[in-house]
Amino acid sequence: MKLRLDKYLTEMGQGTRSEVKKAVGKGLVQVNGVIIKKPEFKLETETDEVLYQGNPVFYAKYEYYMLNKPAGVISASEDSRETTVVDLITRKQRQDLFPVGRLDKDTEGLLLITNDGALAHRLLSPKKHVDKTYYARIDGKVTQEDAEAFAEGIDIGDEKLTMPAMLVILQSRCQSEVELTIREGRFHQIKRMFHARGKEVVYLKRLRMGSLVLDEKLKTGEYRELTKKEIEELC
Ligand code: URA
Q: What is the DSSP letter of 136?
């Protein structure tokens, strides 16, 4: 793909458009061993070799990261006051990353972060019904009746009932542990589903989204790139 030199450097996180234009003008950038002083110079992203201040800058069209989201950060690309999930991806090249869907600020677990809009659309489209599985701790005794109600769909105050969801009860006590698989991504959906049953979610963590499973080796707040296989399976 052909791309302007200043756009290439900006997309790869080397500074703002005006910063990289200045750097190019000062002769700090080489393409295939030749100093290029024109920001509008068109280069071939796949094959041309770019050095910025002597350091190679490789081009990545898409980046895909799996984050084990910690509580306390918001699911957004940028925010003037709060830490976002994209801020946690410190080794990124691209500056146009965004989270695929939202987890609440206090929810932990699997979050895909990418700049691949088409993939995000496929995963989030309500028509595609991508399964999302969560582990939850619930204040209250979760029962088989709750599982049956979730399987049928329940009223959480929206126009429509929730779609059938699968509840697996891991422990049923005063505080219960469950795994719940839902096919939608409504606002605060799981908290509202339990609330509608007179119970409250006290801890929530996403374990799975479609074919993508949270890597157990990732500690809370850690991330890694998706493997080729994971990307192919998602696509
Ligand atoms: N359901 C919720 O209530 N919160 C989340 O973060 C995700 C699903």
A: E
**Dihedral sign for Cα atoms in the order 182, 168, 204, 142:** positive
H-state helical runs in 83-161 = 117-124, 144-152
Atom of ligand 1 nearest to the CA of 104: 6
β-strands 2-4, 34-35: how paired?
Answer: unpaired
Residue list, ligand 1 pocket, CB within 6 Å = 103-104, 107, 188-191, 204
- What's the token pair of residue 29? 């950038």
Would you state the structure tokens that stand for residue 215, as one six-digit string? 């890597």
Under 8 Å between Cβ of 12 and 29 = no
Amino acid at residue number 112: L
Active site residue 106: no
User: What is the reported pTM?
Assistant: 0.88
Rounded-to-integer distance, Cα 194 and Cα 142, Å: 9
pLDDT in tens, 79-110: 999 999 999 999 998 989 999 999 999 999 99
Dihedral over Cα of 156, 141, 209, 95: its sign: positive
Structure tokens at 219: 């500690």
Tokens 């074919």 sit on residue: 211
Which of 87, 96, 104, 139 is an active site residue? 104
| pLDDT of 207 strictly over 90 | yes
pLDDT given for residue 197 in this prediction: 97
Q: Given a cut of 90, is residue 41 above it in pLDDT?
A: yes
CA angle 211, 129, 157 (to 5 degrees): 130
Distance CA 147, CA 168 (A): 7
* CA end-to-end span of the chain: 22
Average pLDDT for 22-42 = 96
